[in-house]
Amino acid sequence: VATSAATVTVNFAPSIATQPTNQTVTAGTSATFIAAATGNPTPTVQWQVSSDGTNWSNVSTGTGGTTNSYTTAALTSAENGYQYRALYSNSVTANVATNAATVTVNSSPSAPVITLQPVNTGVEAGQTATFTASATGNPAPAVQWQSSTDGSTGWADIGGATSPTLSFTASVGDNGKYYRAVFSNSVSPDATE
């Protein structure tokens, strides 16, 4: 003759099952971090943020700060390098932390802006002529040097001249030529003479 069945409940501490991963976003957009843990009773979760990886505070913006999936508010470039982690707790153990995940916040895309114009130079035949130009932009702009005989038409790329400084041995045939650097990225091209 059997008794009724009795069940045993074994409580155990939270154990991290899914670690959050690093995220890369553009300024003005948000990042989403996902984590998970097992445990009995079912663990609660609290997301935290740190600007230095040492001092942590509970997230106060964004959505899902107490769920397995947390989405930040729109991030700024100043938040580049911030770290996020989730703390899981139940009646057995509190504050079992995931690994920290880092967010990389890239600046908003921007067209090239010339920061250094090349200047006129005079050299003797057989000497090295050097021109330097630079530009900012996001993504970082590529550069291509060009030359023209009249400075207004017939601009032609100079083979292999793809660094901010153009140097070449001047010949008599180079007298009066014009040189410029063309900077371009995925947003827009720009040019300097």
C-alpha termini separation: 101 Å
How many DSSP E strands?
18
Q: Please mark out the parts with pLDDT under 50 across 5 or more consecutive residues, or reply none.
A: none
Determine the number of helices (DSSP H or I, runs of at least 4 residues).
Answer: 0
Report the portion of residues in β strands: over 45%
Multimer state: single chain
Q: What's the Cα radius of gyration?
A: 30 Å
Q: Biggest sheet, open or closed, and with what strands and sense?
A: 6 strands, mixed
Mean pLDDT: 93
Choose one word for the global shape.
rod-shaped
Structural class: mainly beta
- Helix percent reads under 10%
Can you describe what's shown?
With 193 residues, this protein is an all-beta fold. Helices cover 0% and strands 46% of the residues. It is built from no helices and 18 strands. Strands 2, 5, 6, 8, 9 and 10 form a six-stranded mixed β-sheet that branches. Strands 15-14-17-18 form a four-stranded antiparallel β-sheet, with no helix packed on it. Strands 1-4 form a two-stranded antiparallel sheet. A hairpin with a 6-residue loop joins β5 and β6. The chain is rod-shaped. The model has no long low-confidence stretch (mean pLDDT 93).
Secondary structure: elements and pairs:
Layout: E1 12-18, E2 23-26, E3 32-34, E4 36-40, E5 44-50, E6 57-58, E7 69-71, E8 83-89, E9 96-97, E10 101-106, E11 110-116, E12 128-132, E13 134-138, E14 142-148, E15 156-157, E16 165-169, E17 178-184, E18 189-192
Parallel strand pairs: 2-10
Antiparallel strand pairs: 1-4, 3-7, 5-6, 5-8, 8-9, 8-10, 11-13, 12-16, 14-15, 14-17, 17-18
